[in-house]
Amino acid sequence: MSASALPAALDWEDGVVVAIDQRALPGALRLLRLETVDQLIDAITSLAVRGAPTLGLAGAYGVALAAHTHDLGTPAGEAALRADAARIAEARPTAVNLAWGVRRALSRLAAGPQGVLAEARVMVAEDAAANRAAAGRAADLVAELAPGRKLRLLTHCNTGRLATAAEGTAIGTILELARRGLVEEVLVDETRPLLQGARLTAWELGAAGVPYRLCVDSAAAAAMDRSMVDCVLVGADRIAVNGDTANKIGTYGLAVAAARHRIPVVVVAPESTWDHELPDGSGIVVEERDAAEVTGFGGTRVAPSDAKAFNPAFDVTPAELITALVSERRTVRPRFGVTEPTSAEIAALL
Ligand code: MRU
Prior knowledge:
Layout lengths: L9 E4 L2 E5 L10 E4 L2 H9 L6 H18 L5 H15 L6 H11 L5 H32 L7 E5 L14 H10 L3 E7 L6 H12 L4 E4 L4 H6 L5 E4 L3 E2 L5 E4 L2 H10 L4 E4 L23 H4 E2 L2 E2 L12 E4 L6 E3 L4 E3 L4 E3 L2 H7 L1
Helix pairs in contact: 1-2, 2-3, 2-4, 2-5, 3-4, 4-5, 5-6
The structure holds 5-S-methyl-1-O-phosphono-5-thio-D-ribulose (MRU).
5-S-methyl-1-O-phosphono-5-thio-D-ribulose binds next to α2 and β9.
């Protein structure tokens, strides 16, 4: 099945969370039926369900699952639900959306299981709307970079329909630019070690007919040096108040290389990815994953049997290396301390 004909990355059907198993793509389109909180947590930790906005929705649907499992009318039932909610929120530490989704669904507990589920569905609709708005705003911004010619873009990890409730953040922006006839080529970082770029982004862009080429992550700086990149477009997992941004490991290196070559770095992410309690990125917890993801490849051990590995899933890019952070509501330019209001906000002032 092509990516454009895909079901939603995550849905609720008759008391069960139905998720695309992102580990199997692009080879197979497999749907997981997650009937218990444990199954949902396993899907999150194994990256069957992944990408910050989708994790937020998984958090909310997870609370709905728990609410349908436990008897909320009893103190023991409510305590069990809250324990499940805490386990879901902690399944992965870096994307702020996960705990946010759990908290928001919990806030509707008084309305019972159906109220919690209704809140999860509202969040899906909101994420889709936020996604489209942010992608449109970011496309306007990026389109100005090279007036009169098509753009060469570089992206990292997967920020598309598998990671969000609509077309995606950075990928949504690329698709919007492509609809405007403004994309010459997208360089897609393969995104070691789990290959979200090679497996998922390449699949989504190919299905949309957007011209792309894959490159190993370490080729990105060389591509910039050869003037093959007009703009780096990425998503985010957590953004601190000052604009420091956690995203897939390798993003910081991209931003360092982009600064060297004076290439803009644009982060596209919904407001739900901003962590208003963190003044800067130093407090962001970066998930460290199993060494086996690095010491092997495609299920085959490649490193010596006693090799250890450093395997952070994310890194933190300092705000000073980011040209703009674009959400559904605003464009923040951290280097200049500027937040641009939306046209609606400007209209309200007039
Ligand atoms: O480990 P993953 O695949 O969940 O990491 C995903 C990313 O880093 C994405 O860039 C981020 O979540 C934004 S998705 C719109």
